[in-house]
Amino acid sequence: MTDKETSRDLDESELGLKAKSIDLTDLVQRLGGRSIVLVGIMGCGKSTVGKRLAQRLGLEFIDADSEIERAANMTVSEIFAEHGEPYFRSGEERVIARLLGEGPQVLATGGGAFMSEATRAEIAQNGLSIWLKVDFDTVMARVRRRSTRPLLQNPDPEGTMKRLMADREPIYAKAALTVRSKEVPHESVVDQIVVSLDNYLHQRAGD
């Protein structure tokens, strides 16, 4: 556990009780206008966990990739195929910057979004970033269920994933908080996020 993983490893029942003891209305108020921004590798659970977190906190859930697809009237895979990754990343930066001005919300970003220095700066100013950290075996089991990951459309998806994780994890580690996305019920990951957020905001208030 890193110094940014602000909650010790509690078992699921302890974690659930701790999360239930937190005043969620007060937590959201302490966020102010900032959005909770989930970052991490594809398959780490940003959308599935994000939807449940938003519901728990009474906030809107926004998926950045869905917003990009709506703006382009194309799927992410189609954008990659027709225009290439640099074109997609440029549009991704613009869309995320716009969305961050519409908070507070829970915003799930694409796996490569946090690699952009401009996007990290926007998030630092208008949001609170949380890295959903996941191990290789877990993430590969998850992404194999979907065939729409453009960066994995090659003969060696495992090798590609290992390279992506090696390249990106040092940048993901710049997030304000780190929460482990393990093979547990999604609600347990939400509990961990809520407890970590509460600890972080209390610590910041005391600085």
Distance between the termini: 22 Å
Q: How many β strands by DSSP?
A: 5
Query: Roughly how many Å is the radius of gyration?
Result: 17 Å
Counting H and I runs of at least 4 residues, what is the number of helices? Answer: 10
Question: Structural class of the secondary elements?
Answer: alpha/beta
Order of helices and strands: HHEHEHHHEHEHHEH
Helix content: 55-70%
| Overall morphology | globular
Strand ordering within the main sheet: 2-3-1-4-5
Give the biggest sheet: 5 strands, parallel
Strand content: 5-15%
Low-confidence stretches: none
Mean pLDDT level: 87
What can you tell me about this protein's structure?
With 207 residues, this protein is α/β, with parallel strands linked by helices. It has helices spanning 12-20, 24-31, 46-57, 64-72, 76-83, 85-100, 117-126, 136-143, 157-172, 186-206; strands at residues 35-39, 61-63, 106-108, 127-133, 177-180. A five-stranded parallel β-sheet has the order 2-3-1-4-5. Helix 5 (76-83) packs across helix 6 and helix 6 packs parallel to helix 7. The longest helix has 21 residues, at 186-206. The protein starts with 11 loop residues before the first helix and ends with a helix. The mean pLDDT is 87.
